[in-house]
């Protein structure tokens, strides 16, 4: 059974009222999600270039952390190659591992893994949306000609 509302009261799946503390947390979470959705919507409409959304980096392994922080720093409308990122983080031969780290990105768009391209200038790998067509669309939206 799913969650339900009865006269504005949030009910649990067992049809027992949820405590007011839990209701407060749910409202806070809802506000946070609405803020995230607002920023993502603005970005997709071309009205936002940077996000204020907090990122929980604690779930990442050390290499993933280095790689994804380097990706996070790629400015709007610019690209870097997997090899560029590998070189930047001190592992010049680890460009494939950079691709693997991108595949673990916990916050696509916010951590802009779509801005990472192959050394040949072509688009390689993207797990969001419809894959490479989505990556191409995002880059074009940012003014990049992939």
Q: Any descriptors?
A:
mainly alpha, two-stranded parallel ribbon, 146 residues
Concise structural overview:
Strand 1 (4-6) and strand 2 (9-11) form a beta hairpin. The protein is built from five helices and four strands. It has helices at residues 20-44, 62-72, 82-88, 95-103, 132-141; strands spanning 4-6, 9-11, 80-81, 116-117.
Mean pLDDT: 87
Number of strands: 4
Our estimate of the beta-strand percent is: 5-15%
Label the structural class. mainly alpha
Quaternary state of this entry equals: single chain
How would you explain this protein's 3D organization?
This protein is mainly alpha-helical. The chain has 5 helices and 4 strands. The strands form 2 sheets. It has a two-stranded antiparallel sheet with strand order 1-2. A two-stranded parallel ribbon has the order 3-4. A hairpin with a 2-residue loop joins strand 1 and strand 2. Helix 2 crosses helix 4 and helix 3 (82-88) packs across helix 4. The radius of gyration is 19 Å and the shape is globular. The N and C termini lie far apart (46 Å). The model has no long low-confidence stretch (mean pLDDT 87).
Topology:
Blueprint: E1 4-6, E2 9-11, H1 20-44, H2 62-72, E3 80-81, H3 82-88, H4 95-103, E4 116-117, H5 132-141
